[in-house]
Amino acid sequence: MSLRVVGNTRYGDKQRDLVAEITDKVPSYVQVEALKNAYPNGRIVRNEFYLGSLSGEAGQSLKINIDPSSPEFMRGMDFNTGDGIGGITKILMAAYNWKIKDVAEHFATFLEDTRTAPPENPIKPELQHQPQPEQIKQKRVIDYSTPYDSEYLYLSEEGEILVAVRKYIERDQTGEIVRDSDGSAKKEFRQFPRLPETRPLYNLPYIKEADRVIWVEGEKCADALINLGYTATCTIGGAGMLSQRTKDKFDFSPLHGKELIIWPDNDEAGQKLARIIQELGVNAGAKSVTMLTPPQGKPKKWDAADAIEEAFDISKFLNAPNHKVKKTLSLKNRNLIIGNQFAGAPPEQKFLIGDTIPLGVPCVFAAAGDSGKGMMTLDLAMKVASGQPMQNSFGGLVAHHGSAIILSAEDDRNELHRRVSRLDSSNNRSGYKHDLLVVPLPNEGGVFPIMMKSDNTYVTSPEFEKIYEEMLEIEDLALVVVDPMASFVHADVNADPAAGAAFMGLLAQMATETGATVMVNHHMAKVRDKEPVTTPEQARNLIRGTSAIVDGVRSAFAIWQVDEGVAEARCRDLGVKYQRNMIYDGAVVKSNGVANREIRRFVRNTNTGLLEDRTVELNASKSSARPNVQARRETIYRWIIECELNGVPLTVSAKETGILHYANNQPETDTEAQEVKKQSRQTIEGDVANLIGDGRVKKYRRNKNGPTQWLGTTRTDGNLFTEEAYLNVDRI
């Protein structure tokens, strides 16, 4: 349906009056909600509502002003047709093929005049002129007929009026406002017909449909947020009526299953009230409870209405990661009951990489410098976007395809072009099923912070917020790569646990809201010479920064360079020429759910530079080894255990402590020892390298300053020695 047809609709005088009445009397927040309901594919950006057209499809061609303070409220333009848009009445007529009377019926609740002289009581008209007792004539009398300055209606979920809260500003005989000592106007609030025994929340009809609700201290603040498109609520009487003593009188059950955000006034009373609201929200079974912390430097009693008046960035404030708090534990929370908490079938765990890296979670990918992290994440993004099945990456098959984004802070367009060409020499990228957006920031205005420290809090940058808004528009987004972490955080995440926790919280929010896996490339600390990593646990402990970085993500994957002897043995098994920086191990080092934690064997492709998973080939090579080779290696492993248990040093080839020396001291009747004695030193070194590569054996130091050469197991069961024990044992 064209807006031009709607815009050219001719009204009679009565129709024009009705349209004007709808425009004037229907609250702005109700008009915004009606617009959103009529066009669920629309999107709100600040004070504008975007849509593809009045046919209802998503897009940005049609724009409507939703700023209640603007004279252009509910007006806009369809840029595809050049047609103008004018008023909520015409918008709803276009959306539903309604007539004006249909729109009026839709808003009937708001079209009854409750402020005529004498004012009608919307609840009990027969009490309009109820006489007042003589004894209170000396006091200020407030009844149904007293003109009020503002009125707030508390409605049921069905839209029925439960109670009306009216604000009266006191004036003297001349009509001037009476003020308190601090200069503020004296005001009173009255509830009509009376304060209900069970006190409802404000804005119930819209709370019912919302996923996220913002609680503020008064109706003025709630309406200010509602006018911006948020679902807000409050409680009758604010801090004056809600206390620990009266809290059971308030019904918070409509917040069950909702995300509750608490925005307290900036004073002690506001903080006290907010803590009660937090308790009530948790007890009602809110999905989550977030307590906002007013920014530093704001005046006393600063609230949501003040924020909006000063053009404060509400969205940034609501979504700042430092506001997130743990949900208060309460055994009164009925959601903890097993039958309520775990009803029905459990949600399916979806993976980006099968059994390795989950979908829709933040993930840290860690490795030492010059390992090839950027190449591996570029290859992963290309495979995710390609849509092609059965492609291997990070030790598993790509299980989910979709659009991908790479934010590269270090590599420019030319370097990325060279890498892409090496990975895709056949130019298959021109036919990808999904979009892959590669952003070389050195060529695109420079690197911007995702998070930065401001005063004593952590905030997102305007540059990132713009990009993030565009991310949210990508419906099939599956992967976001941030490379590397250090370039995008203007805070010391390596030393400050609060900074690490804030950034990880922000990544979690990104993953949840976009549905994509957010993978950040991060550095591992350098290992000391001759002390190679052999286990995922060691790799995890080498990830740079505080524990908050790894603890704050759902998944972490690491790769590490193996011992040189192990690397040479693997190259021999694969029949490739050994080169330095060629052989790596990798594994999931942290996962909050089920994951394949098997160590994967990676070998660098000398043509592309990519580390490729060659685990299957290497295992096949080992399984095809002659039985006597396998038996010899098991004999050496048994000797390592014996020496470990007895506190006797055993090395690969030292003159007095080497494996061959140990074999020579075994009895002649020991056929297994005789088989070891026949081997060359190089063969023994290869056998030990295989045991180390399997993760069964590692090298220890005899003392803190000595070389890493004493052989021991990686097992921790029974009486087997740990590394600390090796440092303290009295060696022969």
How is the topology of this model organized?
Layout: H1 3-7, H2 13-25, H3 28-38, E1 43-45, E2 48-51, E3 62-65, E4 75-78, E5 83-86, H4 88-96, H5 100-106, H6 108-111, E6 150-155, E7 161-169, E8 187-192, H7 204-207, E9 212-215, H8 219-226, E10 232-233, E11 259-262, H9 268-283, E12 288-291, H10 304-309, H11 314-319, H12 338-341, E13 351-353, E14 357-358, E15 362-367, H13 373-386, E16 392-393, E17 396-397, E18 403-408, H14 413-423, E19 436-440, E20 451-454, E21 457-460, H15 462-471, E22 477-483, H16 485-488, E23 489-490, H17 497-514, E24 517-523, H18 536-541, H19 547-551, E25 555-561, H20 564-574, E26 583-591, E27 600-604, E28 611-613, H21 615-623, H22 627-646, H23 659-664, H24 671-677, H25 681-693, E29 697-701, E30 708-713, H26 723-728
Parallel strand pairs: 9-10, 9-11, 11-12, 15-24, 15-25, 18-19, 18-22, 20-23, 22-24
Antiparallel strand pairs: 1-2, 2-3, 3-4, 4-5, 6-7, 7-8, 13-14, 16-17, 20-21, 25-26, 26-27, 27-28, 29-30
Helix pairs in contact: 2-5, 3-4, 4-5, 20-25, 22-24, 22-25
Sum up the structure in keywords.
alpha/beta; five-stranded antiparallel beta sheet; Rossmann fold; Dna Topoisomerase Vi A Subunit, Chain: A, domain 2; 4 domains; 32% helix; 26 helices; 732 residues; disordered N terminus
